[in-house]
Write a structure and sequence with these properties.
This protein is mostly beta strands. The chain has helices at residues 38-44, 62-66; strands at residues 10-12, 53-54, 58-61, 76-77, 85-89, 95-103, 109-116, 122-140, 143-163, 169-172, 175-178, 193-198. Strands 2, 3, 4, 5, 6, 7, 8 and 9 form an eight-stranded antiparallel sheet that branches. A hairpin with a 2-residue loop joins strand 8 and strand 9 (143-163). The longest helix has 7 residues, at 38-44.
Length: 199
């Protein structure tokens, strides 16, 4: 049996509510225009060397990041039918891209990401993110107080597919289907996998 089966392929996902930022009504999406910058999604990713089952939790302020210098960069959208490949290029041939795979009933978004530093390694990962609201803080007269309500994107789970994964990934109902890797660079996905997602 594939070692990945022993990871306990059940993920408990909580219900989330998305409330638009009242100060800046601009909205970005993962599955249609205007797309959220791939550079933001890249910041949520982890290294392929960490573990097959990535449990790190990272969150970012969506609107602040989308309009910041740090995450500024070109965004390319693939042509043709969905799902679209949303990608950004860096120097020396490096790039990062994501594809929207599906959305659970509780509002969590499933992405397939690919990352290259310009060499032969192409890290491929399934990432689950959710949008949540909290409050930003501001410092005034040496007093720290709540200010605006903000929308954040939070990485809740990730699953490495290894180097240059070549297969099919799709979401159906409450099941995430991952086909056997046709490449042999990492041999992480040596058989078909079905991950049941608890709502």
């Amino acid at each position: 049996m594939n070692k990945l089966r022993s990871l306990g392929m059940l993920i408990a996902l909580t219900t989330t509510t998305i409330i638009a930022d009242q100060e800046s009504p601009k909205v970005y999406f993962l599955n249609k225009q205007p797309y959220l910058s791939p550079r933001i999604i890249k910041e949520l990713s982890t290294l392929i060397s960490d573990a097959p089952n990535h449990a790190q939790v990272v969150s970012l302020d969506v609107l602040e990041c989308q309009n910041s210098n740090r995450f500024h960069g070109p965004i390319t959208i693939s042509k043709g039918d969905a799902p679209k490949i949303v990608s950004t290029d860096y120097d020396n041939g490096a790039y990062f891209s994501y594809i929207f795979i599906g959305k659970t009933r509780s509002g969590n978004h499933i992405l397939l990401t690919r990352s290259s530093g310009g060499g032969t390694l192409v890290e491929t990962e399934i990432m689950i993110v959710e949008f949540i609201t909290d409050h930003a803080y501001k410092l005034s007269s040496n007093t720290l107080t709540r200010s605006r309500q903000r929308l954040t994107i939070k990485r809740t789970w990730g699953f490495s597919l290894g180097d240059r994964y070549l297969g099919n990934v799709f979401f159906d109902g409450n099941e995430l289907h991952i086909s056997k890797d046709k490449n042999s660079y990492s041999n992480l996905i040596s058989e078909d996998i079905v991950i049941k997602i608890r709502q």
